[in-house]
Amino acid sequence: ETPKLEMDCPPILDIPLEMANSVNTEVAVNTQENIQRMDEELGRERDYPLFLEHPHTSSPDEFTPEIHDQDNRREYQFQCPRAGLFQCSITGLVFRMEGEGEVLYRTVPWDRRLLAQSGKRPAGPLFKFTCLKTSVCQLHLPHCEIHSEGGCDFLSVAHVTDDDSMEFLRPHETTETHVILNINGFSKYGITKNMEAPVSPIRGLVLLFYQLPDDTNNSTLNVLLLPRNVDIDEVCKTRRRRNGDREKYIEINPNCRLTPDQEYTLSTDLTDEHHIDPKEAEFVDYDSYTNYMPTFLLRLKTVVEEVNLLLKEHDGPENERLWNRLVSLPASPTEVKST
User: Fold this and answer.
1) Residue 70 has pLDDT above 70, yes or no
2) Least confident span in 45-54, 86-95, 136-145, 308-317
3) Residue 120: pLDDT band by 50, 70, 90 thresholds?
4) pTM tops 0.90, yes or no
5) According to CATH, what is the number of the domain 201-335?
6) Cβ of 168: how many Cβ atoms within 10 Å?
7) How far is CA 31 from CA 35, 72, 152, 319, 325, in A?
8) Residue 13: beta bridge partners?
9) Where in the chain is the domain with CATH 2.60.40.2660?
10) What are the pLDDT digits (tens) for 210-232?
11) What is the pLDDT of residue 7?
């Protein structure tokens, strides 16, 4: 029997962006209004888990799948007890079930060349599904578009068969958080976007992975800019497989608004010796579903307990703060939950 594994990272809660402090200037008022608008667009459900908004359907029952290692990759198992709508607490996937049955699913790599031939690019992970009783009649795939920005109009679902042929399906419906597809069989499904679609902001994440101080007190904070519909658990698993126990996942509110192909800068208020590499970096959302490489590296030369991080658009307004967090850094492995 395949051993059951613990989940690396807990599901991310949709905590709203912090409001700017109000001061009696026109600039500050505009900044506060902008942040409030972003907060409303990024997630109106406030106290509920990520990807839970289905305004035109009944609320799904949330489940936590069993997790197994399969070919050195995570595989999720859902044992459905009855007909109904069910949401995975890790990936955000939603299944409409016609009856009881077992569903196995995991992420697999995209064939970027095959997508490009059809003028498409990834807009979410590619999931491989196996359903032993073919009892799934509808699939809800989480997207990261901000509905009011118009990006949802350019989404489609790639259906990849066992012989690796690919077709693109029109969604049955697109909600604020999911692309809904009626299905009668399983193989691989993933959200794609037209390569020629206009650039629009998406819901994003800032994930932090900290390499603990070495014998000379040098440490590194890896800052990853990712689309919000990545599989967080798979990100942690991949980072741990690459870097081992010397790197720790830092839990902090990661939600922000990011624009593809936009350059960003990361800054800090540290006075101790440090270096941020690179100075500017481009956010390329469709490169973010496989390798999970850091966008920025904050290299520290001394032991630091706290650091204030600020993410801004390169050459953007001076007072604009897309993401600003005070981060506590562990001095030893026992001070943070292991990834």
Assistant:
1) no
2) 45-54
3) very high
4) no
5) 2.60.40.2660
6) 14
7) 6, 46, 26, 8, 17
8) 49
9) 201-335
10) 999 998 999 999 999 999 999 99
11) 43
Best-predicted range by mean pLDDT (42-51, 131-140, 267-276): 267-276
Q: Name the amino acid, one letter, at 171.
A: P
* Residue linked to tokens 């699913």: 105
User: How is domain 61-194 classified at the CATH fold level?
Assistant: Chondroitinase Ac; Chain A, domain 3 (2.60.220)
The encoded tokens of residue 329 equal: 């850094």
Which distant-in-sequence residues (6+ apart) come within 8 Å of 129 by Cβ?
Answer: 103, 104, 105, 136, 139, 186, 187, 188, 189
CA distances from 193 to 125, 157, 158, 224 (A): 12, 8, 10, 22
Name the segment(s) of the chain with CATH classification 2.60.220. 61-194
Instruction: Assign 253 a pLDDT band (cuts: 50, 70, 90).
Output: very high
230, two tokens: 């990545």
SS3 string of the chain?
CCCCCCCCCCCCECCCCCCCCCCCCHHHHHHHHHHHHHHHHHCCCCCCECCCCCCCCCCCEEECCEEEEECCEEEEEEEECCCEEEEECCCCCEEEECCCEEEEEEEECCCHHHHHHCCEEEEEEEEEEEECCCCEEEEEEECCECHHHCHHHHEEEEEECCCCCEEEECCCEECCCEEEEECCCCCEEEEEEECCCCCCCEEEEEEEEEECCCCCCCEEEEEEEEECCCCHHHHHHHHHHHHHHHEEEECCCCEEEECCCCEEEEEECCCCCEEEECCCEECCHHHCCCCCCCCEEEEECCCCCEEEEEEEECCCCCCCCCEEEEEECCCCHHHCCCC
- Least confident segment among 27-31, 171-175, 227-231, 325-329: 27-31
Q: Quick check: 61 and 92 in contact, CB under 8 A?
A: no
Residue 300's alpha-carbon distances to 109, 112, 278, in angstroms, are 34, 36, 14
